[in-house]
């Protein structure tokens, strides 16, 4: 064998070994990146954002049963936000709208259009009117629970109502929800 043949064979062997090393490095890098991406997704799911399927009709027409929504664990709920809360009576998760927060008071009023409205007075004295529902008061039986047209209800936590007011078990029946019962704020409609 000539020296050239040995040199070419040695050179080819070195090139093959170098290619094998590069391929192993590339595979290791790909594996590491995949693991990091997986951990980021798991971290987001556990600590930041997660999907949940709506299984009740108490928020219709805003949210339909079977609809998928994204929920943020980092957002602090405020008036008007839709939240996922732990039911006081068990392991069930509920979806409800924050109508009032600690320090607010709620009075049920009938306005000139003959509809019920919630008159919410915030702790700073600001007055907010929110339409209770779309039905005229005359001849309708309501589940008003702890709400009254005679006496303001003082909120000591979160006062939550379903948008489907005539088909929702919420703060009118269960009272105020603790801030700790909030599992997240809904981000999507």
| Percent helix range | 25-40%
CATH architecture of the largest domain, please?
Answer: Ribbon
Q: Give me the number of helical elements.
A: 2
How many strand segments? 10
* Strand and helix order: HEEEEEEEEEHE
User: And the CATH topology of the largest domain?
Assistant: Umud Fragment, subunit A
User: What portion of residues belong to β-strands?
Assistant: 25-35%
Distance between the termini: 77 Å
Give me the CATH superfamily of the largest domain: Umud Fragment, subunit A
Structural class: alpha+beta
**Overall number of structural domains:** 2
The radius of gyration is 29 Å
Shape: elongated
What keyword list fits this structure?
alpha+beta, Umud Fragment, subunit A, 2 domains, 4-stranded antiparallel beta sheet, elongated
Tell me about this structure.
- The chain has 189 residues and is of the alpha+beta class.
- It folds into 2 domains: 47 residues; 137 residues, Umud Fragment, subunit A (Ribbon), CATH 2.10.109.10.
- 26% of the residues lie in helices and 31% in strands.
- The strands form 2 sheets. Strands 1-2-10-3-4-9 form a 6-stranded antiparallel sheet.
- β3 and β4 form a beta hairpin.
- The longest helix is centred in the N-terminal third of the chain and has 45 residues.
- It starts with a helix and ends with a strand.
- The model has no long low-confidence stretch (mean pLDDT 83).
Summed up:
The protein is of the alpha+beta class. Helix content is 26%, strand content 31%.
Give the arrangement of secondary structure elements.
Blueprint: H1 3-47, E1 49-53, E2 68-72, E3 82-86, E4 93-101, E5 105-110, E6 115-121, E7 127-136, E8 153-154, E9 158-161, H2 171-174, E10 182-186
Antiparallel strand pairs: 1-2, 2-10, 3-4, 3-10, 4-9, 5-6, 5-8, 6-7
